[in-house]
Specification:
InterPro entries: Haem_Oase-like_multi-hlx (IPR016084), HMP/HMP-P_kinase_dom (IPR004399), PM/HMP-P_kinase-1 (IPR013749), Ribokinase-like (IPR029056), Thiaminase-2/PQQC (IPR004305), Thiaminase_II (IPR027574). The chain is an alpha/beta fold. Helix content is 55%, strand content 12%. It has 2 domains: 259 residues, UDP-N-acetylmuramoyl-L-alanine:D-glutamate ligase, CATH 3.40.1190.20; 217 residues, Heme oxygenase-like (Heme Oxygenase, Chain A). A hairpin with a 2-residue loop joins strand 2 and strand 3.
Length: 510
C-alpha cells in the first residue's frame, strides 16, 4: 500500500475473480490505496455467465459499512451491484451520514445478455435516494436509458456523439454531480456516428458531463475478447484517482487509460470473456523490503559460485592452518595491490553519489580501507615482505582483471552497479571469517593457527559495522530498481564473485 487513501467498495462478489469485489480490490491495490468491502451479494459466475446469486441482507450490509466507517474511515465510496432497494437505501443513508469526499456509482442494472439485475422498485430507489448524493455515476448506454425510462424521461436510441452528450446531461438531471456515459456498446465511425458494420468501427467514446461541461474521451476501437469486469475496474480506478487528489476529468482520463492497457495486456483465462490485467503497470519485486541480500544469496545461479568463493581450497586451508606460508605471502602482496584499486573504486563511488551523505559514506569507506591496508603492511612485514617489495610487486593477471572489472563497472554504470561489483568482497570476507571462526578450537591458543589473526580481522566490530552499513545502503537503493534492472545487477554480482574465485586460485598458484 503506497498511501492511506481508504476506498470502501459496496458491491457483489464474483467467484471467478474477474469482476465485482474481486476486481475492485485488485484495482485499488494496483493504485496503492486501501480497500474495504461491504458485500451485497455472492454470485456463482465465470467467464461464460452467472449461474446463481445469493443476496446479502441489507441490514448486514449496513453493519459492514458502519464497521469500516466508524473505525478505519472512508475517503471514497465505490458501488457496484447493489442487488435490492433495501441495500440501495442503506448506501444512500450511509453517504449522508458519513459524508465521504466522493462517491462513484457503477449502476449494475443490466447483464451482458440484456437481463435486468435490478427490479423496478430498486431502480426507483436508486434514482430518488442514491443519485442525489452521488459524486459520479458511470452507466453504459443501456443502463443510462433505463434510468431515464424509470424516471419518466425517456430518450430514443442513441445514434451519435451528440446523442451521448444529450444522454449524459439528462442523467445529470437525476441528481449526480457528474455523469460518465460509457460508449462501449456503440462503436463509432470517425465522424462520431454509430458504426453499422464491423469495418466501420473506428473509435470508442466515453462522455463525461461535470460542472456543466462535456469532456469527450476517445480511444481507438480494438477487437478484444477479455473485457470481463471492465465497468467495475473503470469505476474503481476513478475512485482511486479521485482519492489520490485528481480532478474528475483527470481521474476519468487516467482510469480509461488504465483499463485500456488492462485489456491490451490481458491473458486468456476461461472459455469466455476473460478478465483484464489489473497489474500491468506494477513492478513485482522478487523479494520483500530489506530482503535483497538473502534473496540474492539463495538464488540457484548464485549459490554455486558463492560456495566456490566462500569455501575455496585456499579458504579451507587457512581455516585449518595448513595453507603454505609462501602461498599466503603471495596472496597478501596481491591483496595489498588490490586494496589500492578497491580504494579508487570507492572514491569513484563518492563521485557517483548524488548526496553529500553519499559522498561522505564513500570517504569513510576509503578511510577504512586505508586502515585495513596498514594491517596488511604489518602482516607482510612479519612475513618478511618489505615496503619496497609491496610497492614494486607486479600485479598478477587475476588481480588486474578483478580490480579493473570493478573500475570498469564504476565508469560505465551507476552508483548501485559499482556497489554490487564490490559487494562479493564486502560480504564474502565477513561470511568466510564468521564460518572459519566457528571451526577454531576455543581451548587452543590463537597462535595455534597461523591465520587466526586474518580470520579475526574480518569479524572485528569495525569490519562487521562496515558490512552492515554497506548492506543497508544497497538494500535502500535496490528497492527502487525495476525487476529487469535487478537481474542485470545479479549478473554483475555473479561475475564479480567469479573474479573472487580467481583471486583464490591465484593464491593457490593455480
Amino acid at each position: 500500500m503506497a498511501n492511506a487513501r481508504r476506498i470502501l467498495v459496496v458491491a457483489g462478489s464474483d467467484s471467478s475473480g474477474g469482476a465485482g469485489l474481486e476486481a475492485d480490490q485488485k484495482v485499488v491495490a494496483a493504485h496503492g490505496c486501501y480497500a474495504m468491502t461491504a458485500t451485497t451479494a455472492l454470485t456463482a459466475q465465470n467467464t461464460q455467465g452467472v449461474t446463481g446469486i445469493h443476496e446479502t441482507p441489507s441490514k448486514f450490509v449496513k453493519k459492514c459499512i458502519d464497521a469500516c466507517a466508524e473505525d478505519v474511515g472512508i475517503d471514497v465510496v465505490k458501488t457496484g451491484m447493489l442487488a435490492s432497494a433495501g441495500t440501495i437505501q442503506v448506501v444512500a443513508d450511509a453517504l449522508r451520514k458519513y459524508k465521504p469526499a466522493c462517491s462513484i456509482v457503477d449502476p449494475v442494472m443490466v447483464a451482458t445478455s440484456g437481463a435486468r439485475l435490478l427490479k423496478e422498485d430498486a431502480i426507483k430507489t436508486l434514482c430518488t435516494e442514491l443519485l442525489p448524493v452521488t459524486g459520479l455515476i458511470t452507466p453504459n448506454i443501456p443502463e443510462a436509458l433505463l434510468l431515464l425510462k424509470e424516471s419518466g424521461n425517456k430518450i430514443d436510441e442513441i445514434k451519435d456523439l451528440d446523442g451521448m452528450k444529450q444522454l449524459a446531461k439528462a442523467v445529470a438531471g437525476l441528481g449526480p454531480k457528474s455523469v460518465l456515459i460509457k460508449g462501449g456498446h456503440i462503436p463509432l465511425k470517425k465522424n462520431y456516428e454509430v458504426a453499422t458494420t464491423d469495418d466501420e468501427k473506428e473509435v470508442l467514446v466515453n462522455v463525461l458531463y461535470t460542472d456543466g461541461n462535456f469532456c469527450v474521451f476517445e480511444s481507438k476501437y480494438q477487437m478484444a475478447r477479455n473485457t470481463h469486469g471492465t465497468g467495475c475496474s473503470l469505476a474503481s480506478a476513478i475512485a482511486c484517482n479521485v482519492a489520490n487528489g485528481l480532478s474528475m476529468e483527470r481521474a476519468v482520463r487516467a482510469a480509461g487509460r488504465y483499463v485500456e492497457a488492462g485489456i491490451k495486456t490481458s491473458v486468456d483465462l476461461g472459455k469466455g470473456a476473460g478478465p483484464i490485467n489489473h497489474f500491468h503497470s506494477l513492478n513485482i519485486m522478487p523479494f520483500p523490503p530489506g530482503g535483497f541480500v538473502d534473496w540474492l544469496l539463495e538464488r540457484e545461479d548464485v549459490q554455486q559460485v558463492w560456495k566456490e568463493f566462500t569455501q575455496h581450497e585456499f579458504v579451507e586451508k587457512m581455516g585449518d592452518g595448513t595453507l603454505p606460508v609462501e602461498r599466503f605471502k603471495f596472496y597478501m602482496v596481491q591483496d595489498y595491490l588490490y586494496l589500492t584499486q578497491f580504494a579508487r573504486a570507492n572514491a569513484l563511488a563518492g563521485y557517483k553519489a548524488k548526496t553529500l551523505e553519499g559522498v561522505a559514506a564513500s570517504a569513510s569507506i576509503v578511510t577504512h580501507i586505508h586502515t585495513e591496508t596498514k594491517l596488511h603492511v604489518s602482516e607482510c612485514l612479519e612475513l618478511g615482505v618489505t615496503m619496497d617489495e609491496l610497492r614494486n610487486s607486479e600485479e598478477h593477471q587475476a588481480c588486474t582483471a578483478y580490480s579493473r572489472y570493478i573500475l570498469d563497472i564504476g565508469a560505465s554504470e551507476d552508483w548501485l552497479a559499482l556497489q554490487i561489483a564490490m559487494f562479493p568482497c564486502l560480504l564474502g570476507y565477513h561470511h568466510i571469517a564468521k564460518r572459519l571462526s566457528l571451526l577454531q578450537d576455543p581451548s587452543a591458543p590463537k597462535t595455534a593457527n597461523r591465520y587466526r589473526q586474518w580470520i579475526d580481522n574480518y569479524i572485528a566490530d569495525d569490519y562487521t559495522q562496515a558490512v552492515g552499513k554497506g548492506m543497508e545502503l544497497v538494500e535502500g537503493h535496490v528497492s527502487k530498481q525495476s525487476p529487469s534492472r535487478i537481474e542485470e545487477l545479479v549478473k554483475i554480482f555473479i561475475h564479480a564473485t567469479k573474479m573472487e574465485c580467481g583471486f583464490w586460485d591465484m593464491g593457490m598458484g593455480a
